[in-house]
């Protein structure tokens, strides 16, 4: 078999390592074979290629050094930084929120659990990923670590010395320039050289190739130059309409905290590509970020109509039904995920909760047993916490206390477990222990209102009115619409007024 054909066959079979080794042998014999050189570049690129549309995550630097702020106090429903101002959204009373003020999502996506903490201290203290307690850095920093790790495993050093290559010679040759650009961007992760090549190639094609404009926009976006990125994407859309370009332009507006503009871009894309699932998903995510759950679920239902196996849409709809007191409906969607072959601890945990609230008690414990058998280190604490909730629901406070302590032993920063342990200690009459648990929960999760309210009510019961008054104000800062907190505050103010 011809060696070049064999290498190409390996590339099509996605056997990239064998393809690279075969191309290396061919280049050792003939270093000027451009076809083999391009094939090796493409194979190396595919080894490290990541879908940066789904892998991007805003780091601390982007969150706190953003100079693109439009308004300090945005109008209700127009900002992702302050989604609590949305009209008609969900409340913390029945759906838990993250530290950023957004309701918990049905699936873990970049930006759902990690977007914009309130303070720099909170950002540094809070684990940003599921694998490490280290706060996440920017997208470019993460891909740099991927690139350097891959280069260490390559014998003989890097394939191309970027510092010695003359990019101008390749810019006028599209067959060489495009694979070289992707290699520099994804394998080497050298955005500066990639941007330089894209600029030269755009000039060489007299600004008529929309593909190069999209790549320019990607480079500007990675460098944080949002307005330049917006200009390139819009110029590309005037020449050629592409789903990826609409999505990337929408992400630019999201970074600029202009979700309404992002929605307009996605809706314009739907005019060219009706019922496109990726555009519908982006719209549903934006509405979810704006705390407009009804519109988000509406678009997720459209996604399920077009793609009945879309895991994200099914999970989000199921979670919405669960938190709107429809566990039977949620159970149908989670069972659908199980029938599709999804088999993990999170799904069995949700199935167990749905079975319990739907009064199917015979299935509840078996679901949680499956969840514990499949659980990883990051999931064990949440599963024991939910088992503790079920034990509280059936009145077995001893089992509940054991489960909550197991949750804390698995994750020492699990604030809801500390709060519930405080409630159990309060029922037993151990007031000092209960106060300690409430204070620990509040220090670990200042965005939760329950520990503050419980601590304030306990202090009021013990006669410490000043501490109760101070703590209840923090509870109302976390959740201003909590009626019991408002009533307790009025009672304390009335007491102080009478005195």
Output the keywords.
499 residues; mainly alpha; TPR repeat
Oligomeric description of these chains: single chain
Rg calculated over all Cα atoms: 27 Å
Query: What share of residues are in beta strands?
Result: under 5%
Shape: elongated
Q: How far is the N terminus from the C terminus?
A: 97 Å
Mean pLDDT comes to 83
Return the structural class. Answer: mainly alpha
Separate helix tally: 27
Helix content: 55-70%
Question: What series of H and E elements makes up the topology?
Answer: HHHHHHHHHHHHHHHHHHHHHHHHHHH
Description:
InterPro entries: BBS8, TPR-like_helical_dom_sf, TPR_rpt. Helix 19 packs antiparallel against helix 20, helix 24 runs antiparallel to helix 25 and helix 25 runs antiparallel to helix 26. It is elongated and about 85 Å long. It is built from 27 helices and no strands. It is mainly alpha-helical and 499 residues long. Helix content is 67%, strand content 0%.
């Amino acid at each position: 078999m011809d060696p070049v054909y064999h290498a190409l066959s390996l590339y099509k079979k996605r056997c990239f390592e064998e393809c690279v080794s075969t191309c290396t042998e061919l280049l050792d014999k003939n270093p000027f074979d451009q076809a083999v050189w391009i094939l090796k570049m493409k194979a190396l690129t595919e080894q490290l290629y990541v879908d940066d549309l789904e892998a991007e995550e805003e780091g601390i630097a982007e969150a706190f050094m953003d100079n693109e702020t439009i308004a300090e106090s945005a109008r209700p429903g127009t900002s992702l930084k302050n989604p609590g101002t949305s009209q008609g959204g969900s409340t913390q009373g029945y759906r838990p929120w993250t530290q950023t003020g957004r309701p918990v999502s049905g699936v873990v996506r970049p930006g759902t659990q990690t977007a914009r903490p309130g303070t720099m201290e909170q950002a540094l203290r809070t684990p940003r990923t599921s694998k490490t307690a280290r706060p996440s850095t920017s997208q470019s920093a993460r891909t740099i670590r991927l690139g350097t790790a891959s280069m260490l495993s390559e014998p003989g050093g890097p394939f191309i010395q970027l510092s010695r290559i003359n990019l101008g010679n390749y810019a006028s040759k599209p067959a060489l320039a495009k694979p070289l650009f992707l290699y520099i961007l994804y394998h080497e992760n050298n955005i500066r050289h990639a941007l330089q090549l894209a600029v030269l190639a755009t000039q060489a094609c007299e600004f008529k190739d929309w593909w190069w404009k999209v790549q320019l926009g990607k480079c500007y976006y990675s460098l944080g130059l949002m307005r330049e990125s917006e200009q390139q994407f819009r110029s590309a859309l005037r020449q050629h309409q592409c789903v990826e370009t609409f999505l990337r332009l929408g992400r630019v507006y999201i970074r600029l905290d202009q979700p309404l503009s992002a929605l307009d871009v996605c809706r314009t894309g739907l005019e060219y590509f009706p019922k496109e699932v990726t555009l519908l998903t982006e719209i549903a995510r934006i509405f979810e970020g704006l705390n407009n759950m009804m519109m988000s679920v509406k678009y997720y239902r459209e996604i399920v109509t077009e793609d009945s196996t879309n895991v994200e849409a099914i999970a989000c709809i199921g979670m919405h039904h669960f938190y709107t007191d429809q566990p039977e409906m949620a159970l149908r969607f989670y069972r659908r995920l199980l029938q599709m072959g999804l088999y993990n601890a999170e799904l069995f945990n949700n199935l167990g909760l749905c079975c319990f609230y739907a009064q199917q008690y015979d299935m509840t414990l078996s679901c949680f047993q499956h969840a514990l058998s499949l659980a990883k280190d990051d999931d064990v604490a949440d599963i024991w916490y939910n088992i503790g909730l079920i034990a509280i629901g059936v009145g077995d406070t001893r089992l509940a206390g054991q489960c909550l302590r197991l949750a804390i032993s698995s994750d020492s920063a699990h604030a809801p477990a500390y709060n519930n342990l405080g409630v159990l200690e309060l029922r037993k009459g151990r007031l000092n222990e209960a106060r300690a648990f409430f204070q620990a929960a509040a220090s670990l999760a200042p965005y939760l209102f329950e520990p503050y309210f419980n601590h304030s009510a306990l202090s009021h019961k013990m006669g410490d009115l000043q501490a109760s008054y101070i703590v209840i104000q923090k509870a109302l800062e976390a959740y201003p619409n909590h009626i019991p907190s408002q009533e307790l505050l009025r009672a304390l103010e009335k007491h102080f007024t009478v005195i």
